[in-house]
Each structure stands twice: as C-alpha cells, then as structure tokens.
Amino acid sequence: MILHDFLPSGNGYKIRLTCAKLGLYYQLKEYDITQGDTRTEAFLALSPNGKIPVLELDDGHCLSESNSILLYLAEAHQSDLLPNDPLDKAEVTKWLFWEQYSHEPNIASVRFWLTHNAMTELKEKMLPERIQQGHAALTLMDDQLSKQDFLAGNRLTLADICLFAYTHVAEEGGAYQLSDYPNVQRWIQDIQAQNWFIPITHRQ
Ligand SMILES: N[C@@H](CCC(=O)N[C@@H](CS)C(=O)NCC(=O)O)C(=O)O
C-alpha cells in the first residue's frame, strides 16, 4: 500500500496510527499541502477531491476520506477496533461522523489557520464561533471520558484513534488548553502508553 500524506495532518495520522495498531506496512509518499502539491494533475488522478490522505491499495484502488479509510482497514483486517455487533458498531461510527462535523472544523481547521499563517478577514470573523464550538466538542468528549475509559466503551476502538489525531495537538496555535479537560488529558496519556503508539511526526 502507498499512503499519500502530509506529516502534520491529523487526518493522515489517523491512518498511520491504525496501521501501527494493525501492524500493517505501507510506503509513505509525502506532499506539501501548503504548496498546492495535492492539486497537480497527477494527484487529482488519484483523488479528484485533491486532498490527503489517500490510501493506494496494491491493486491500484485509491481510497480517500480518512474515516472511510479507517473503516476499510478495520473491516479488511477483521480488527476489534470496530465491533461486529450492529449496535456496538453504531456507537463507534457515531464518533467518526461527529468528528467530521463537530470536531474537525473547529479543532483541526483552527489549528491549521493559526499555525500556517492562513488567517484571512473572513476567517478572523469565523474564529470566535469556531473556538466556542471547539470548546463544546472538547467538553462533550471530557464528559464521556469521565464515565468510561474510552469514547465508545471501556476498550479502545476506531473512535479513539479518529478523535485522538487532532485532539492531542489541539493546543497548537493557542486556541485551546487541554488542562481545561482533565479526562481528555488522561485518555491522551492512555493512548500514548499503548505499545503500538507512534507520534504524529513518525515516519515508518
Ligand atoms: N474529510 C477529509 C478532509 C481531508 C483534508 O481536509 N485534507 C487536507 C489536509 S488535513 C488537505 O489535503 N488539504 C489540501 C487542500 O485542500 O489542498 C478527510 O477526513 O480525509
């Protein structure tokens, strides 16, 4: 497999973490998204959406959308990261959909804007609302993690890998302080203590 990726990306990191947990080897092909590397003809032939991550399978099939790739990897490798029982599975996928709508736009986008000098007049206007929504997302996670070890129960699932990716770097850019969310901090440490854990900067 070839993972087309940009190392600081949390969306790409979700795939790298899942591969680390499953013991899967892939070749990493890096792109600089700040230089338009994903908008070239060659990249658009892999994924017309022009965004990393893209996972190119050995038969040439290209998968995009990070959470769809997570589901593919867990199902293809029959991993307990995704339960078989439909109800338990829905408890996991709920977090994957929630991440894309309620977490990623407020935590990941804000981090990118503030760390990549990407502010515009429009983004300045949107920022306070995004930060407020980001705090709401972190509060929801913190409440859940005050009641159980992991997001979808007492064992680690795709929900945790998905949400860990951007949550653990939420402070970058200065919009959020994770010390405001002690249960989230405990959960981050628990994931970092897994024997398969790799940091976001790790190259395979
Ligand atoms: N919903 C997509 C989002 C992918 C995405 O926004 N990728 C960003 C980096 S994290 C990107 O490639 N941006 C480059 C561009 O839009 O040109 C996913 O979860 O994979």
TrEMBL record:
Gene3D superfamilies: 1.20.1050.10, Glutaredoxin. Residues 85-204 form the GST C-terminal domain. One of its GO terms (molecular function) is transferase activity. InterPro entries: Glutathione-S-Trfase_C-like (IPR010987), Glutathione-S-Trfase_C_sf (IPR036282), Glutathione_S-Trfase (IPR040079), Glutathione_S-Trfase_N (IPR004045), GST_C (IPR004046), Thioredoxin-like_sf (IPR036249). CDD domains: GST_N_4 (cd03056). Pfam families: GST_C (PF00043), GST_N_2 (PF13409). It comes from the Bacteria. Residues 1-81 form the GST N-terminal domain. This is Glutathione S-transferase domain protein.
